Predict the structure.
Amino acid sequence: MASRAHAVVRANHFQHMTDEQYRRLMGSDRHAVAIVANLAMRFAGRIEDALLLMDIYHASEGTKTPRLVIHEGVGTLPDHHDHPHVQHAIRILNAAGLPPIVTDGTHALRPGFQVLPSCDDLPGWIYIAPDPDCDNRTGFAGGRLGYLAVMRFAGWGVVTEPMPEGLWAVVHLDYRNNPFPS
């Protein structure tokens, strides 16, 4: 399906480019990648996932107002609320329809995913604790690996092996060249 989507986009907008120019453009232009992914999902008959991909793209680029104003204690502990990468990740995950935790800092008032910043030695890195019901979801953002799929589509780097306690480690796209220490 993705090859058919690529062919449609290429025929309508990029016929003047060589194959190599088009390949480079598609690999580096986040908007073009989002459009092709959206078309591929539509051709596959997965309209909800196509819309979800565009919501994730808009949240990652900050091009649309997020559906949810993130209040203190939503998606993270109140102590981490003001961390910019934590806020960005919560917006992306929320755009994907994933439920954030709601907490007063001591008790979880509503279960959901939780985003945590890393230590100062790892700038740009954050951790994501999946929500308890993630294994019951299907589609692009379904299951435990759905968190990685969403963040990877948003342009963030991901560590594909879970960290201790089932956390996922992801790095903001501005810090993708910073290695995760082993």
The chain has a mean pLDDT of 79. The beta strands are 102-103, 108-110, 114-117, 125-129, 157-158, 168-171. The chain is about 40% helix and 10% strand.
